[in-house]
Amino acid sequence: MSYEIKVNDLTVWYKDFKALDQVSFTLNGGKIHGLLGRNGAGKTTLLSILSNFRKAKEGTITIDGEDPFDHPRIMQGTSFIYDKDLTYEYDKVGDMLKELADFRPNFDATYASELVKKFKLPLKKKVHQLSKGKQSALQVTIGLASRTPLTIFDEAYLGMDAPTRELFYKELLADQERHPRTMIVSTHLVSEMDYLFDEVTIIHQGKILLKDTNENVISKGFSITGNKDNVEAFTTGLEVLNSQILGGTKSVMVYGELSEQKRRQARDLDLDIGPLSLHDLFVHLTKEEDEA
Ligand SMILES: Nc1ncnc2c1ncn2[C@@H]1O[C@H](COP(=O)(O)OP(=O)(O)OP(=O)(O)O)[C@@H](O)[C@H]1O
């Protein structure tokens, strides 16, 4: 089971600072959505509203067709995994997992035990005594084993070492395959996680910059390299994200559709067309004026 999410004209203020500015989008159910944004872009603000931590005051949100705020079914069906402060969590790991099973109707205790083994979580240790990476692994275990129709991981990998992150990504894909749900995964580690996403949303300075399938986003990013004058002639009118000149050669990154006619023109001008990664697109699409 999975929830569809509709956000319409959502604006969030912190006193006189606008953290989200008329944000509108739909997230299809049963997909893994990558939510990408730079520091302070508004990711956590958005995710805390989707997970009922905060009420939408301007704009509307529906999750599975309902206003999610204070809605028992939607709240029970939503997991929000974030960098939680576990300093005062004196329960033992095993007890915490047992208690959770009572609150989450879909919680799979057998799968949780498998994850405990894979992440090497010490069941008898108190949660606040776990290392940062193990605390994150515990949170991820809870997020995956809860099997909620909406599962949100907000930079859930913090403190995990590279092999543990790999394990998390592998489990996320495998369990999504077995039990499709709506997942939202926010991250800065774009190059490491890009293969996980079915759909991508980029948020920048409180606004949605881009929302599309991962495949479509990637298919619109190109690097164009060749003779400087030819590259300049070719890219006139295209959205140029970045350019570099080395002697008489120019290399640019562009974002947009390239028609067959444009591709022919590139061949005639002896230009090389290459793909761009989601990481490159993210970095350059969210570049600010003073970072050129
Ligand atoms: N409680 C608050 N009071 C005032 N401003 C806030 C508050 N929470 C967040 N902000 C501001 O709102 C903006 C968005 O913050 P948010 O935490 O949503 O960003 P983020 O994309 O999750 O960033 P990061 O990747 O750094 O965690 C930032 O400018 C932040 O300083």
UniProtKB/TrEMBL annotation:
Domain of life assignment: Bacteria
Transmembrane segments: none
Keyword NAD included in the entry's annotation: no
Matching Pfam families: ABC_tran
GO molecular function term, any single one: ATP hydrolysis activity
UniProt cross-references to InterPro entries, sorted A to Z: AAA+_ATPase, ABC_transporter-like_ATP-bd, P-loop_NTPase
Entry keyword annotation includes Nucleotide-binding: yes
Protein name: ABC transporter ATP-binding protein
